[in-house]
Amino acid sequence: MENKLLEAMKFRHAAKEFDTTKSIDEETFNQILEAGRLSPSSFGLEHTKFIVVENPELKEKLQEASYNQKQVTTASQVVIILSRIKDVMSNSVYAKELFESRMPKEASEFLINFHGSFTQNFSEDEISQWSKKQAYISAANMMTMAAYLGADSCPMEGFVESQVQEILGIDPKEYGVAMVLPFGYRNQEPRPKTRHELKEIVEFRK
Ligand SMILES: Cc1cc2nc3c(=O)[nH]c(=O)nc-3n(C[C@H](O)[C@H](O)[C@H](O)COP(=O)(O)O)c2cc1C
Question: Is residue 147 part of a domain?
Fold first, then answer.
């Protein structure tokens, strides 16, 4: 039986440059964003925000902050995935209000306490790393959705976080930059995929 999701995963590759004559239309791109929005997150705290850069001058600056990787200026949309820091710390107002707005009082009180004790000994850096893990799940889902819709992407951690924050006016105490994630359409076919065989990386314990 044809498995469209698996086909999409095989179609996806990390595009090194996009076709600048094509751009992802709004309807398609909104579905990609929706895949990010619907992604799971620890405690349901929705650690992630998305800045969609379409402005050519901003893309130029971001490319400079990304070791001049051409994906950035050739993409039709560049998603900067931000990961919350202050908002997801122990006893934050954001966390409290989110829990209270999403569930009955008893459940929200339980989660406020649980989240509070889970994070209370985290350093700011640990909070930031924890938050970035959530962003990677959104990134994966967005890339798979793009591939499912015939579009391309490139996950990028090759960028200088402080420079990206400065370009976009992001307060580093508020948000980390988890990933620079350009989307567009490939301008050349990728090399065949290389991966370990399943039997080399999977071990069943029955
Ligand atoms: C977290 C992460 C960061 C990455 N950073 C970059 C990057 O900065 N530039 C780049 O060209 N590719 C980057 N890649 C893409 C990988 O090199 C690529 O996924 C891997 O070689 C496998 O190739 P494929 O995705 O085409 O199957 C990154 C991938 C991941 C998951």
Answer: yes
Query: Is 180 domain-assigned?
Result: yes
Within a domain: residue 50? yes
- Closest of 37, 52, 24, 47 to residue 148, by C-alpha: 24
Nearest CA to ligand 1 atom 24: 13
Each residue's pLDDT tens digit, 48-63: 999 999 999 999 999 9
CA-closest candidate to residue 182, choices 3, 51, 86, 30 = 51
Q: Could you tell me if residue 60 is inside a domain?
A: yes
- How far is Cα 130 from Cα 183, in angstroms, rounded to an integer? 25
Give the global pTM. 0.97
Nearest CA to 78 out of 56, 95, 101, 105 is that of: 56
Range of the domain at 60: 17-93+123-201
The CA 203 to ligand 1 mean position distance, Å, reads: 25
Q: Is 184 within 8 Å of 75 (Cβ atoms)?
A: yes
